[in-house]
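Students often ask why inverse folding is considered easier than folding. One informal answer: many sequences map to the same fold, so there is more than one right answer. In these notes we will look at a single instance of the problem. The structure comes first.
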C-alpha cells in the first residue's frame, strides 16, 4: 500500500458515469491564514491510497500536532475496506488554532505512522490591515 496525504484548500466532488465519485480541484496548501487567535478552522486532508489489496480492511487516523508536539486535533479511527486498488478520500477536522507557528499532521494506518506533513499558521495580512484601520 502506498499513501500520499496533504492539506488542501478547495474540494469539489463529481459523480462519474459509473456512479463512483472523484475528488477534483483540490490544490495542496502549506499555509493556513487566520484573522485572529484563537481561530476555529476546518482542515481538509486529501488521502491518496494506491497499490491496495482489494477486500483488505484497514484503519486510518489523522493527528494534528502544534509546534510543541502537543496533540491538538484528531480525526478518530476511520475503518475502510479497499473496494478497488486505488482511491482518494477526504478527512475533515474542525479544530482551534491558538498559535502562529508550524504544525504537523500525521497519518496512521493500523496504528503506525505512514505519512507526515507540515503546514504553517500565519496571520492573514488583509484581516490585520483592515482591523488596524477600524481601530484608528
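Output (designed amino acids):
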Amino acid at each position: 500500500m502506498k499513501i500520499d496525504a496533504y492539506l488542501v484548500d478547495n474540494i469539489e466532488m463529481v459523480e462519474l458515469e459509473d456512479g463512483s465519485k472523484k475528488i477534483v480541484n483540490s490544490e495542496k496548501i502549506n499555509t493556513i491564514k487566520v484573522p485572529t487567535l484563537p481561530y476555529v478552522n476546518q482542515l481538509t486532508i486529501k488521502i491518496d491510497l494506491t497499490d491496495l489489496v482489494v477486500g483488505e480492511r484497514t484503519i486510518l487516523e489523522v493527528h494534528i500536532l502544534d509546534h510543541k508536539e502537543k496533540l491538538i486535533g484528531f480525526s478518530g479511527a476511520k475503518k475502510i475496506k479497499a473496494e478497488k486498488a486505488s482511491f482518494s478520500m477526504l478527512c475533515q477536522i474542525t479544530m482551534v488554532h491558538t498559535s502562529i507557528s508550524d504544525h504537523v499532521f500525521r497519518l496512521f494506518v493500523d496504528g503506525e505512522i505512514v505519512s507526515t506533513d507540515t503546514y504553517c499558521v500565519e496571520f492573514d495580512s488583509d484581516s490585520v490591515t483592515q482591523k488596524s484601520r477600524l481601530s484608528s
